Amino acid sequence: MDLTALTVREGTPGEDGLIAQHFYALWQDLGVPDSDLQPDSLTICLEFIDQARRSLRYQSFVAEIEGAIVGSVSGQIFSGLYPAVLAPHHRQYGYIWGVYVEPAHRRQGIATQLTQRMVAYLTSLGCTKVVLNAAPGARSLYETLGFCDSNLMELTLTA
């Protein structure tokens, strides 16, 4: 693909439905069966986006080729796993989620460009660190962009 035909721009509230569809497709691509996704997952996603836009400076970016949106990313201020007792200048994390590119357009640098735009946005908000949860197949992409393993530890409680 000729990347000169690619435009990465801010998503609009009118495109939230497409962002929610991309997020749903992301889980399907990761092998999660529809029966394990909430039946109202699109509504849940739209409500989350609305709340995050109002209180966490949510922003999306979309990748567009000849007027068709082929990818998207979402991000906002990370609301945290515990009370926010640290001053923002010490710890203000940004969170990236929902990096998605349509299958026909993958492995062409689109996810990289989307992620870079989101990192720039979160940097503009004064974030001191950006975090994301990487799918196993995308780890190398994020490592190339400077992301590294953290001290997050997990204990699986279900089989």
Annotation keywords:
single chain; 159 residues; alpha+beta; Aminopeptidase; five-stranded mixed β-sheet; 5 strands
| Spans where pLDDT lies below 50 across 5 or more residues | none
Helix content: 25-40%
Helix-strand pattern: EHHEEEHEH
- Determine the number of helices (DSSP H or I, runs of at least 4 residues): 4
Would you kindly provide a brief summary of this structure?
This protein has helices spanning 16-29, 41-55, 110-124, 139-144, and strands spanning 6-10, 59-65, 68-77, 93-101, 129-132. With 159 residues, it is of the alpha+beta class.
Describe the structure.
The chain is α+β, with helices and mostly antiparallel strands and 159 residues long. Helices cover 31% and strands 22% of the residues. The protein is built from four helices and five strands. α1 crosses α2. The chain is globular. The model has no long low-confidence stretch (mean pLDDT 93).
Topology overview:
Layout lengths: L5 E5 L5 H14 L11 H15 L3 E7 L2 E10 L15 E9 L8 H15 L4 E4 L6 H6 L15
Parallel strand pairs: 4-5
Antiparallel strand pairs: 1-2, 2-3, 3-4
